[in-house]
């Protein structure tokens, strides 16, 4: 075993000396390092694209994050020993860091949180670090089971080198079957997954046939904490399909904690405000409980016909009718000298239920239900409840937002910041609509408006609250492209306010550019700070089956020039499916198949014909008379089914099956002729974009995955293919006539030597173009990648991203450059007139 290294510098001193905190957004190291914590030890794996891509593996211990740089990242295959360079300790606050470290700073590049969770050392971790053998168990969103770090360097080596590898257990699996790095490349903060041990449990859920003896062995003798930040739930995009969860109704009210000291109770909001004076009767009821000191967690609400009503709660508070308020308690974090936060949830709740046996009508236990989550969710939706709360049965209590508590919403509903208002009927005195927003990375973003859900009394109350907050200009930092929406209103109809108040809003959906649709006001959230309001996401779905990733002949080489195999290609399409399917859905397609690899014979397939691809939809022949049935891909399984059948490229029509004869886009394919330098292609794209802008048309850009670029103009599906093709032909001829030294409007290699050919023929009926994110059957296997116009100058080629690199690139992208494409249906009428 290699000898231990002796570290004599103070904690985090190396971390501090390497960084200029005036320039980098990384968290500064605190002056005082805590020696212990009651919370479970955290771990984080950060994906870091600096000079080269690598993974930073960090384990919390003694108030810092022990850190290793792992170039290839972790792997579930015990045979794969991954190099891990032990680097300087980082502050625990670094576990939440995501962002860009500026150029010329240490570690310059982009960082995302690739995985996070808690870890348990096996044995003494201090001794493990000393002797160079650290064994531990991970509980993350991507990583689980037993792992080991072993030092392999000698005492005089320049780098402290270790090896990271998976121990053999139920979680171990061969790399050929599963590569977690490629399968799950994205940030877990942008797209939370929940604990993998709940998604894919390796042991059966324990049966509970009767009452269990309370297990309070993890309770710690400690003084009553002066303050306690509540645990928060993460919004679930789908119900957990496995795992052991406690399921409660999601109550429609205000979060309320109780601190009881020497029999005296204080009621404290989620934000830490003391509301005891608002509810003295309720505080007195808490003081009647059989306890001397405690921290309790719950929700206050008012029941209307047996269902929690947020509006009724507000009426009760505003009208001082606190006798109608019910305090539902669901957790117990401290009791009579014992800190219970490390005690499993089920035991904390069992103890709480005992305390509340004789509490009366105003203090109640929040009941949990023993039934499948999907069935409970359906029942909650039918009763008009807001949704469900799902909490891991064995979870400890952790302040802040966690993955062990999930909230499943049956209706889209969330808090939004009030940024302005309009007068009802244009007359002062009553609010007619509220102009709303939410924060993204500290910037206030416009999210639309709400104009229903209140009566005349509430309209007058809102007016009285908002007029003292008026200001001259809109408070939004980001108004996106919706400034046009405000300009269509009568001048001066909006009255802007300081963004201090928060509204609870129910709505049908989010638009693609982040605006709420069909919204209804539910009430003010006086318990929530406006600065903490962020977009939560959409309605919770029932669990969906995972796509079948069993690959036949996975070792077959598709691209001899790079060694890309069939397994690589299928896994690429599995990882990109969520982004790619909107570009494929309901569009007839043509597929390029390569059964012998791209160096062999390729052929197009447009119809079902002989080869059956499960999951693809073959449409009725009447859709396109006298032709074989058209095919579409609309699901992950269909996409992977095609990839399994050696489909490399996916090309789509310019119309959907719903309106087959009316194209909803026009495409200009910029194809460089012989001798054309890449800079000329970039210049050509910029000129096309400029001319389209002069014609009043917005356009979006993507690489072709081959030699050129695609410029796409979304349309309202009103004109025929002939009309759209005629416009595209006139547009290209105008380009070639105006700048003949740069553009050619005539096909054929001899006609475009030294020029960029802008292909308008792709706008005819049944013509197709490579879809966004499609791989290309060419050496290197480039990918057609949507990009922003601001990126044009940075592009190096039309095949800049490949099957091997595209998903890594996308995992670091925070914004979708095509987010507004889907809502930008445009008319060609004015542009056609201008071209004549």
TrEMBL record:
Reactions catalysed: ATP + (deoxyribonucleotide)n-3'-hydroxyl + 5'-phospho-(deoxyribonucleotide)m = (deoxyribonucleotide)n+m + AMP + diphosphate
Pfam family, one: LigD_Prim-Pol
One example of a Gene Ontology biological process annotation: DNA repair
Presence of keyword DNA repair: yes
Domain ATP-dependent DNA ligase family profile: 318-440
UniProt entry keywords in alphabetical sequence: ATP-binding, DNA damage, DNA recombination, DNA repair, DNA-binding, DNA-directed DNA polymerase, Exonuclease, Hydrolase, Ligase, Manganese, Metal-binding, Multifunctional enzyme, Nuclease, Nucleotide-binding, Nucleotidyltransferase, Transferase
NCBIfam families listed in its UniProt record: LigD_PE_dom, ligD_pol, NHEJ_ligase_lig, NHEJ_ligase_prk, PRK05972.1
Name by which UniProt lists this protein: DNA ligase (ATP)
Gene: ligD
